[in-house]
């Protein structure tokens, strides 16, 4: 019996592996070296910190400029399916923090929130910070560059596990930067452990929004904004709160995985136009 090979597919898979290796190396270098400088000088608001926390997106940009472009594939109907991924991104991003506030006790401090907004210059700068610090600084790398290439080699669960693990490891230097929420947790605390593990189920939920619901990078950015907003204004930092965040993200990701394609069709059913009778 002869075996039919597909050299083009194998070539694309190999190229994806090379791109992923370069992305991992560049992301850690572009992030960790500047963050090490920030830790050395002890000023989390300096230019080194801004560059370091933008490592994933900067690495993706450098690779794109070097010719390592996004693998070709079917175009996502991002705009035509906005009614599906926008509500999902907002709900899945806010749900873990909302559950933590409900189950671990109210942690929202209006006075602290007002002080934080005042410190950054007002509500608009605070909103821009929530958009830039994490969503735009990371998602063009994680979900825009790495995830499509991982999907060429692995299934959704394995892709999410690998990307979630890398996402967690990338955050480690932030535990040593004064003034960050990670530094307040402490690298050896239970909250820190729960925080790092939570990236695994969260990564699967990001995959669901970006791939299954065709949200793309826009969906990832919106979900990341919702996630950061909930964690920041919900005051999510205690061991109990992080435990609820991890538990909620895990249960929701398991439910989404169990439903499979039906999870994406829950909203699509009502929006699917009836076929004309011929």
Automatic annotation (TrEMBL):
InterPro entries: MmRce1-like, Rce1/LyrA-like_dom. Coiled coil: none annotated. GO terms for biological process: CAAX-box protein maturation; proteolysis. GO terms for molecular function: endopeptidase activity. Keywords: Hydrolase, Membrane, Protease, Transmembrane, Transmembrane helix. Residues 123-229 form the CAAX prenyl protease 2/Lysostaphin resistance protein A-like domain. This is CAAX protease self-immunity. It comes from Pseudonocardia ammonioxydans.
């Amino acid at each position: 019996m002869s075996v039919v090979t597909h050299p083009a597919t194998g070539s694309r898979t190999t190229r994806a592996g090379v791109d992923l290796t370069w992305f991992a190396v560049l992301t850690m270098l572009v992030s960790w070296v500047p963050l090490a400088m920030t830790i050395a000088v002890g000023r989390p608001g300096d230019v080194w910190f801004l560059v370091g926390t933008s490592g994933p997106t900067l690495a993706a940009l450098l690779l794109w400029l070097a010719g390592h472009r996004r693998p070709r594939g079917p175009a996502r109907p991002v705009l035509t399916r906005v009614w599906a991924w926008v509500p999902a991104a907002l709900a899945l991003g806010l749900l873990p923090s909302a559950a933590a506030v409900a189950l671990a006790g109210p942690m929202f401090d209006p006075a602290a929130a007002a002080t934080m907004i005042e410190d950054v210059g007002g509500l608009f700068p605070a909103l821009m910070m929530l958009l830039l610090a994490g969503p735009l600084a990371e998602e063009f790398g994680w979900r825009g560059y790495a995830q499509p290439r991982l999907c060429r080699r692995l299934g959704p669960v394995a892709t999410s596990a690998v990307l979630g693990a890398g996402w967690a490891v990338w955050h480690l230097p932030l535990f040593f930067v004064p003034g960050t929420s990670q530094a307040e947790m402490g690298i050896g605390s239970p909250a820190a452990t729960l925080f790092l593990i939570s990236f695994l189920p969260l990564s699967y939920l990001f995959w669901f929004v970006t791939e299954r619901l065709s949200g793309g990078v826009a969906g990832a950015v919106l979900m990341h904004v919702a996630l950061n907003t909930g964690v920041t204004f919900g005051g999510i930092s205690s061991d109990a709160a992080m435990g609820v965040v991890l538990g909620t993200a895990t249960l929701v990701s398991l439910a989404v995985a169990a439903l499979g394609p039906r999870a994406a069709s829950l909203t699509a059913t009502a929006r699917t136009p009836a076929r004309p009778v011929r």
